[in-house]
Design brief:
The protein has 350 residues and is α+β, with helices and mostly antiparallel strands. The protein folds into 4 domains: 2-17 and 81-169, Reverse transcriptase/Diguanylate cyclase domain (Alpha-Beta Plaits, 2-Layer Sandwich), CATH 3.30.70; 19-78, 3-Layer(aba) Sandwich (MutS, DNA mismatch repair protein, domain I); 177-229, DNA polymerase, domain 1; 244-344, DNA polymerase, Y-family, little finger domain (Dna Ligase, domain 1), CATH 3.30.1490.100. Helices cover 37% and strands 22% of the residues. It contains 12 helices and 12 strands. It has helices at 19-25, 49-52, 62-68, 79-96, 117-135, 147-157, 167-176, 187-195, 209-216, 218-229, 261-278, 311-318, and strands at residues 11-16, 36-40, 43-47, 73-76, 100-104, 107-111, 139-144, 162-164, 244-250, 283-292, 297-308, 329-337. The strands form 3 sheets. A 5-stranded mixed beta sheet has the order 5-6-1-7-8. The N and C termini lie far apart (62 Å). It holds the Pfam family IMS. Belongs to the DNA polymerase type-Y family. Residues 11-186 form the UmuC domain.
């Protein structure tokens, strides 16, 4: 069980607080203490904490959010600004730590490089201070022995804090934590486990392993047992270099005119190419995923013999292919692939 696990570097889980909203609030300080949310298409992408006090949450319809909070300020998502801050955030992670595993555009697991909880906490506080100073947003940091424990710690730390799960706390959590609070356990699995009396993680001890395996499958059962025993994932899968960059957009937005498909594609290609240029990268491929109402999706792809981050080159290559777009188009996602530095590009022979 847990007591027999060999000590290793503690992990940090770093998560930006209300990321999209926080990025906007840097230039709209008058909204810091007022309910506000950022909207992507017709859905809430991120809400600040005053808005969350009214029950506004990410993923709900903007109209539903307004019904909960009539004074809610809604702002269309500033995608270019959000993506730039995300890139800068990960640049800081990479400069301060050797091993970083992205979780999303605003969160990551990080190997602290130390098994000393006080030192790991100090490193986390230094990181929080640097992000606040340089980017003007807050991040919460959790310190734990495994990814799950670090994630649980960062949840406790929110908003704008740091929390360490000690060995004593971890041992207790692996008994008392409700199954539906365990990261990576989906709702359907939670309901199946409830039917056999597994409400908290420690309840697994009272059920035959064959029963747990029958109810939720071999893979999930093994995952649950590893979590209960304290042998769950504690390895950082570091990304040494970026191989792709992605951006996305929608035809409709909040409080702005609708874009036509060509405008949206051009804007997304320009945005992702600017990100590549800032990072000193060029790409050999570009893919555009076109999404229509009803969920139909068409993916357009193109490659260039000479790697490039040129907006004009990629736009000229992909824009004519819009004739194949499903209709009516709702949004699209643009991904630059095969990223590398210009000095590593082999010139085309023909």
């Amino acid at each position: 069980m847990y007591d027999g696990v060999v000590a290793r570097s503690l992990l940090l889980h770093v998560d930006a607080d209300s990321f999209f909203a926080s990025v906007v609030l840097r230039r709209r300080p008058e909204l810091v203490h007022r309910p506000m949310a950022v909207v992507a298409h017709v859905f809430i992408a991120s809400a600040n904490y005053p808005a969350r006090a009214f029950g506004v949450r990410g993923g709900m319809l903007a109209q539903e959010a307004l019904a909960l909070c009539g004074e809610l300020q809604l702002i269309d998502v500033p995608r270019e600004e959000v993506e730039q801050v995300s890139d800068q955030l990960f640049d800081i992670f990479g400069e301060d730590f050797a091993a970083v595993e992205p979780g999303s555009m605003e969160e990551a697991f990080i190997d602290s490089g130390t098994s000393d909880p006080d030192l790991a906490a100090a490193l986390g506080q230094q990181l929080r201070a640097r992000v606040k100073r340089e980017l003007g947003i807050s991040v919460s940091v959790g310190v734990g022995r495994t990814k799950l424990m670090a994630k649980l710690a960062s949840r406790t730390a929110k908003p704008d804090g740091l929390h360490v799960i000690s060995p004593v706390d971890e041992a207790q959590l692996r008994i008392s934590i409700p199954i539906d609070d365990v990261w990576g356990i989906g709702g359907k699995t939670v309901e199946k486990l409830r039917l056999i009396g597994v409400i908290r993680l420690g309840d697994l001890d009272s059920r035959p392993r064959e029963e747990v395996q029958r109810v939720c499958g071999t893979t999930m059962a093994r995952k649950l047992w590893r979590i209960r025993e304290g042998t769950d994932d504690a390895v950082i899968h570091s990304v040494e270099s970026r191989t792709s960059l992605t951006t996305e957009g929608t035809i409709s937005g909040y409080n702005r005119r609708d874009w036509n498909p060509a405008e949206l594609m051009q804007a997304c290609i320009a945005r992702v190419c600017r990100r590549a240029e800032r990072a000193g990268l060029v790409a050999t491929g570009l893919a555009v995923a076109l999404r229509a109402e009803g969920g139909e999706q068409v993916v357009l792809k193109h490659g260039l013999a000479d790697a490039s981050a040129s907006v004009d080159a990629w736009t000229a290559a992909l824009l004519p292919q819009l004739v194949d777009a499903p209709k009516p188009l709702v949004g699209l996602r643009v991904t630059l692939t095969g990223l590398t530095t210009p000095d590593r590009v082999q010139p085309a022979l023909f």
